[in-house]
Structure formats: C-alpha cells, structure tokens
Write a structure and sequence with these properties.
mainly alpha
C-alpha cells in the first residue's frame, strides 16, 4: 500500500471549532459528531442534521482527521430508518385498531340480532292465539268431535257382534 492511500490517523477532537467555521449550512459538526457517537437522537435533531448538504468541508478542515462526513451520513440513514420503523409501527397500530373496531361492531350487530330474535320469540310465546294468528278452536266443538268419535267406535263394535246379540240390544229397554 502506497503512502498516498494510507488514511490519516484519526485523533481525538481538540474542539478547535474549525469544522463549524467551515460549514456553509451554519451547523456545528463537532456537536453533531458527539451526539451521533452517543446516539443522542434528540440532540442530533436539535443540531439540524437534516440541513447538512454533505459537502464535507468540515471533514476537510478537521486537524484530527475525524471522518465527520461518514458519521453525518450514518446519522441520516439511521434517522430515516427510525422514521420508517415509526411509520410501520403506526400503520400496524392503525390496522390493529381498525380490526378491533370492526370486531366490536360485528359483535354488537350479532348481539342486537340475538336480542331481536329472543324478543320476537318472547312476544310469540306470550301472544294469545288471535295475536299469533292461530286458529281459535272452540271447546264445544272439541267435545262434539270426541262424542262423534265415541259414537262411531260404538257403532262399529255393535256391527261386529252377532245378529242375535244385536237383536237383544234392540230389545233391551
Ligand atoms: S458536510 Fe454537512 S456539516 Fe459538514 S460542512 Fe458540509 S453541510 Fe456542514
Ligand atoms: S474540526 Fe475536528 S477537531 Fe476541530 S472541533 Fe471540529 S471535529 Fe473537533
């Protein structure tokens, strides 16, 4: 490996402020770098990472050769990933809520139908024959039918007996 391809040795930040002075977007790359190292995402957001144009002026002037642009790009990717995860979780939550609401609505409809059915059954059970539309059978008609049936059976029984016995029946006062 030639001397030109060997990356300069990275050293700790000396807080010189050169990166901030070089930034055309008026950002503080040093502060963003420390926030990214600590994964302090609220601080990264406050530092307006999204405003970085990735021009790498900060990295070029850094005397400690800190790969600021790599850190800044990683931070942007990570923020996009987090945003995507949030949207996915929101969508899943919305789907879950919609399903819960649909199931609850369907349960309510089933319960309402069940209540209606049992109320109808109760009304029919309590209804008088007229209200239920049933035919009203008179008790006298029932008794008359029973008497007719009995008379018919007795007539049949008499017909089966011998002529002499039938004659005796007639002679009996
Ligand atoms: S890469 Fe971003 S933070 Fe660095 S100087 Fe350019 S705009 Fe500023
Ligand atoms: S230029 Fe480099 S050393 Fe100086 S403050 Fe920025 S990150 Fe630190």
């Amino acid at each position: 490996m030639s001397a030109e391809t060997v990356p300069p040795l990275q050293r700790p930040c000396i807080h010189c402020g050169d990166c901030a002075r070089a930034c055309p977007a008026a950002l503080d790359p040093q502060a963003l770098f420390f926030a990214l190292v600590a994964e302090d995402w609220p601080a990264v957001q406050r530092g307006r990472l999204d405003a970085c144009t990735e021009c790498n002026r900060c990295g070029e002037v850094c005397p400690s050769h800190i790969p600021l642009l790599d850190w800044l790009r990683w931070g942007k990717t990570e923020l996009r990933r987090q945003q995507w995860m949030r949207e996915r979780a929101d969508a899943a939550r919305a789907r879950h809520e919609a399903r819960k609401a649909r199931l609850s609505r369907e349960r309510g409809q089933r319960e309402a139908a069940r209540t209606t059915r049992s109320a109808q059954a109760e009304v029919i059970a309590r209804a008088t024959p007229d209200q239920a539309g049933a035919t009203v059978i008179d008790k006298a008609d029932v008794m008359a039918a029973i008497a007719r049936g009995r008379a018919h059976r007795e007539a049949l029984a008499r017909a089966k007996r011998s002529p002499a016995a039938r004659r005796d029946d007639k002679d009996t006062p």
